[in-house]
Amino acid sequence: YFPKMIEITEVGPRDGLQNEAKFVPTAQKKQLIEQLVNTGVKRIETASFVHPKAVPQMADAQEIVAFSKSLGIDFLVLTPNMKALQLALAAGVQQIAVFVGASETFNERNIRRSIEDSLQECADMFQVAKQHNLFVRGYVSMCFSCPYEGAISYEQVTRVVRHFAEHGVDEISIGDTNGQATPRMVYERFAKLREDFPSMKFIAHFHDTNGFAYANTIAALQAGITAFDSSVGGLGGCPFSPGATGNISTNKLVELMHKMDIATGIDEEKLQLASNFAHNIIM
Ligand code: HMG
Ligand code: MG
């Protein structure tokens, strides 16, 4: 079983750039976003409202959000806490993304909260977000294994998924943050998630640290997943996940899908131009 088309959320400007030590000038970030829009990709995660000391690369989020709005595109912004949600509301963002780890240690390193506290804060945020008619994505990170804790159980993942679902999340992105999942783990975990949460929309968010991200994509497709996150040119990583490399590359993902007669709505040549541009600005 394979779908006729998949949906791609381009996360390069956020997940891709956040790991780059050298600050990419705001003007170049804007050019990258414009080039991505030209590829035909439907939705882009363009920025995050995080502490500039934690992730200096995202310090220009306000300006990037204003630019994304001016383009009239479908875009998402990461908001780890209530303060970030307030900034997003003030900036006129319409789609936010919260992120909580399935692993306690990672969550503490990433957003300096216990999972319990993060879930509580998310419940409050979802309420405010819904009052303002925002679309809410929930990310669950380290859904297969964790660089600090090793194997992650299905129950650790569903603890966060269930909480998100009960509080009205619109979609959930399941992250292999450190890129260590195997196709079998991916197939089994997504199949069970779909069985246990039949009305939830799940997205597969793969990092390619171990080179298995494309195999994992096929396993996710076979488990019925048709929405994926990817990053132009495979940029990225997470500064709080030691050793993790880039996201699955949008370019290779699109090529693979097209060769399998699965539509993406993305123009491969324009995507190559965007990828060349992305690699030039991070050099
Ligand atoms: P904190 O220090 O615990 O925050 O940071 P706090 O509430 O204790 O406040 C301390 C100070 O930070 C205060 O300022 C706040 O105003 C300020 P002061 O009064 O001392 O001047 N503050 C903020 N400033 C800007 N933006 C904010 C904000 N919140 C508080 N939102 C916080 C908590 C979450 C903000 C911090 O730890 C942080 O920014 N962490 C960065 C996390 C991050 O960006 N990680 C990477 C993205 S996640 C990821 O990549 C995974 C994903 O791709 C999926 C996957 O692969 O699995 C999504
Ligand atoms: Mg990620």
UniProtKB/TrEMBL annotation:
The GO terms this record gives for MF are:
lyase activity
Q: Which InterPro entries match?
A: Aldolase_TIM (IPR013785), HMGL (IPR043594), PYR_CT (IPR000891)
Annotated Pyruvate carboxyltransferase domain ranges read: 6-272
Question: What CDD domains would the database entry show?
Answer: DRE_TIM_HMGL
- What is any Pfam family matched here? HMGL-like
Keywords of this protein's UniProt record, alphabetized?
A: Lyase, Metal-binding
Q: Does the keyword Ribosomal protein apply?
A: no
- Tell me the protein family, please: Belongs to the HMG-CoA lyase family.
Q: Which NCBIfam families match?
A: PRK05692.1
Q: Would you tell me the protein name for this molecule?
A: Hydroxymethylglutaryl-CoA lyase
Q: Which organism is it from?
A: Lysinibacillus louembei
